[in-house]
């Protein structure tokens, strides 16, 4: 990753993939570009880094779900394609946090908000979401928060 915006990094990666004639990588990057363009046209907004991260995170989640369904259905070639796309998408996301790092951030958020019990789940998740976007699977984070609050 460079000092420029995430969208500029993705454009540069697309040019590099074109030059290298890397069809699979190029296809995935074009999917990213198409999703950004769709949002910009539909919502009349310019994609900033925070929104780009959210979009990439959602794309990874969709592919994980698809890969799991393909694996469950015994369609490993389709699951492999989804996993290859996940690998390309994750290149543009910040490094994933370890479970210990996530738990430390959850504990910090619970302490900062004085949250107690399951009714505080929304407040804790609200604090964590911007910090963890693109860096952790929010479904997993949700489960960890439930465990901490119930604990």
Automatic annotation (TrEMBL):
Record Pfam families: YqeY (PF09424)
Coiled-coil boundaries: none
Protein's name in the database: GatB/YqeY domain-containing protein
Any GO molecular function: carbon-nitrogen ligase activity, with glutamine as amido-N-donor
């Amino acid at each position: 990753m460079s000092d420029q915006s995430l969208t500029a990094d993705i454009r540069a990666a697309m040019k590099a993939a074109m030059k290298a004639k890397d069809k699979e990588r190029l296809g995935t990057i074009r999917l990213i570009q198409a999703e950004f363009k769709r949002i910009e046209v539909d919502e009349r907004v310019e994609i900033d880094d925070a929104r780009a991260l959210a979009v990439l995170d959602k794309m990874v989640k969709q592919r994980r779900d698809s890969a799991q369904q393909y694996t469950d259905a015994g369609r490993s070639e389709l699951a492999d394609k989804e996993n290859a796309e996940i690998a390309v998408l994750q290149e543009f996301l910040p490094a994933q946090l370890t479970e210990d790092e996530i738990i430390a951030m959850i504990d910090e958020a619970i302490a900062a908000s004085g949250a107690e019990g399951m009714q505080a789940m929304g407040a804790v998740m609200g604090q964590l979401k911007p910090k963890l976007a693109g860096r952790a699977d929010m479904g997993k984070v949700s489960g960890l928060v439930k465990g901490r609050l119930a604990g």
